[in-house]
Write a structure and sequence with these properties.
Chain lengths: ~325, ~250
């Protein structure tokens, strides 16, 4: 069960504060890194919601991310709707896609669930790739960032956009945490722990899982909308399944089922990637070694391991 | 309360349950006995909804539930416990009971309420913990609980849904001799208005807690009566003695 422990609050605050300072005192390039981390963190939180707390390890969150980005870009840059309508449409599109995938895959478990979500992700990729009105494989440009001049913000400024993305990481984290502590979230943890027993207690588990997947997809959609605004351009690359794989790596690296871990994992992965790639092109190799080490050290991830060690000291009730 | 008529279940050509009929009054404690392979577990699964009968009918409070699945039956107040503990691992006793109580209460799909921590659910948890003698172990992680405690929680999860009908699958399975009596007392002390069907192969449980006993053999009801009648029954003696002789 999810509990917003002090350690979680501390870890989230520390990472976000650290990244904010990095963006404020760094130049353009550090800000790009911060945005990259923020997008990945939001996506990883959304994946952790279903994978870590619902046992649904999805390999189509990259596709959902892309659907959010494309829906926003299509609505604003092609159809000419305003940003609010575009945002609502994008969130709705991801919610519906998530609900559909969730409903179809809810009764599939284990490796077959992973394969099914991968298949759905690939289908979305192919559709977008072939969709000429959305630019096909050329992608779609002309996406503009939110106009927040009414509250004195200029998102075309790299620093303000980076801070805006970090703020949304906090919002998404808070929304996910709130959901996990609600009746819905507790029930989801119950399904994760013992789905058969939940059904014997009278729960329609598949409906619950479908809604959970949909909810998670909306969070991934937020990352998609930001991604479209960040580069002001969307391409089918966003939906490639390796994006889903990378998000899963982030979640495992940070700590599956910890919610705070994915933020730590995102920062770690992106920094590692940029630091290592300064020396060698084979940064994947280093990430791979890191991942193997993380999995072999108990599979709790960097944040999860810290939480585990501290909990052993103060013996809090189980936090699964 | 519970009415079973002409219930049959075949697996291919094998007729595992044959024309089973049972009628329970509200508040009755019925123990279903029988040697290994008598079809007890099949009957249990037919009642719980994990198996669909080949023919026949099951009625709960007059309502036909034959075609309903496990979760639909659960929502009508039919609750079950398992022969092998089937708990929420990794959570505490309290969290386990909260999941059961809240799920049965409904409203678990809400993002804006916290039923699991509501006063109503908390009261149910305390009430049930008292019934299954776990009141002082609420914050114990299930993974660290003793086998006996886990067995008690198994019954507690079924009770936390506030069922009308409780189905128990060998509740004392695996419980050591020292705890058997305590477990029988626990079952006997459950609220009187609760109707209970217990599937068991241990005769003593039947004699300790049952109002009436049904004996199955080869998928058929071969005897039904009060515990005293059962003790005096030649049919039952033959089945159980025969069983012992086969084992020896």
């Amino acid at each position: 069960m999810f509990h917003q422990t002090r350690l979680k609050s501390f870890a989230v605050t520390a990472v976000i504060a650290g990244l904010s300072l990095y963006a404020i005192f760094g130049g353009f390039f550090p800000r790009e890194i911060v945005v990259e981390i923020a997008l990945l963190a939001i996506l990883a939180i959304s994946l952790d919601f279903v994978a870590g707390y619902g046992g649904m390890v999805s390999l189509c969150h990259g596709a959902i991310y892309g659907i959010g980005a494309y829906a926003y870009a299509g609505m604003t840059a092609i159809a000419g709707f305003d940003a609010v309508t575009g945002t609502i449409a994008a969130l709705l599109a991801t919610a519906l896609f998530g609900l559909f995938v969730g409903a179809v895959t809810a009764n599939i478990s284990g490796i077959f669930f992973i394969m099914a979500t991968l298949a759905f992700g690939q289908m979305a990729y192919v559709v977008i790739f072939e969709w000429k009105a959305l630019g096909g494989d050329d992608g779609l440009s002309g996406v503009s960032r939110y106009d927040l001049s009414a509250i004195g913000l200029d998102l075309d400024d790299s620093l303000q956009f980076a801070l805006f993305c970090l703020a949304l990481v906090l919002v998404v984290y808070a929304v996910a945490a709130f959901a996990l502590r609600s009746s819905f979230g507790r029930t989801l943890s119950g399904i994760h722990s013992n789905e058969n027993r939940m059904r014997a207690l009278g729960l329609s588990a598949w409906k619950h899982k479908a809604v959970a997947f949909s909810f998670s997809s909306v969070l991934a959609g937020v990352a998609g909308i930001l991604a479209a605004q960040h580069t002001m351009f969307v391409s089918p690359e966003l939906l490639v399944w390796t994006v889903s794989g990378e998000v899963l790596i982030v979640v495992i690296l940070g700590g599956l089922g910890t919610l705070a871990g994915p933020i730590v994992g995102a920062a770690l992965l992106v920094f590692l990637k940029h630091e290592v790639s300064a020396y060698t092109e084979h940064w994947h190799l280093i990430i791979g070694l890191f991942l193997i080490a993380a999995v072999m050290a108990g599979g709790r991830g960097v944040y999860g391991q810290a939480e585990h060690m501290l909990r052993g000291r103060i013996r809090r009730p189980a936090d699964a | 309360m519970l009415e079973v008529t002409e219930l049959c279940k075949s697996f291919g050509g094998l007729r595992v349950s044959r024309n089973i009929a049972m009628k329970l009054e509200k508040g009755e404690r019925r123990v279903v006995l029988g040697p290994n392979g008598a079809g007890k577990t099949t009957l249990f699964n037919l009642l719980a909804g994990t198996l669909q009968p080949t023919s026949g009918e099951i009625r709960l409070d007059g309502e036909r539930i034959t075609d309903l699945n496990v979760e639909q039956r659960a929502r009508l107040g039919l609750s079950r416990s398992y022969q092998k503990n089937n708990l929420f691992e990794g959570l505490t006793v309290r969290e386990n009971l909260a999941l059961a109580a809240a799920t049965a209460r409904g409203g678990t799909s809400s993002f804006f309420s916290r039923i699991h921590e509501s006063r109503e659910v908390r009261e149910t948890i305390e009430e049930v913990a008292e019934m299954v003698a776990l009141a002082d172990k609420l914050d114990l992680g299930v993974a660290h609980a003793s086998y006996g405690n886990r067995r008690q929680l198994e019954v507690g999860l079924a009770l936390a849904t506030k069922p009308k009908l409780l189905l128990m699958d060998e509740p004392t399975s695996g419980v050591g001799p020292g705890m058997i009596d305590a477990f029988h007392r626990l079952i006997a002390s459950l609220p009187r208005e609760l109707t209970i069907v217990i599937i068991e192969h241990d005769l003593d449980l039947g004699f300790d807690v049952a109002d009436r006993i049904t004996v199955l053999n080869y998928g058929e009801v071969v005897f039904e009566g009060t515990p005293d009648e059962t003790k005096g029954s030649d049919v039952v003696k033959e089945i159980y003695l025969g069983d012992w002789q086969d084992d020896a």
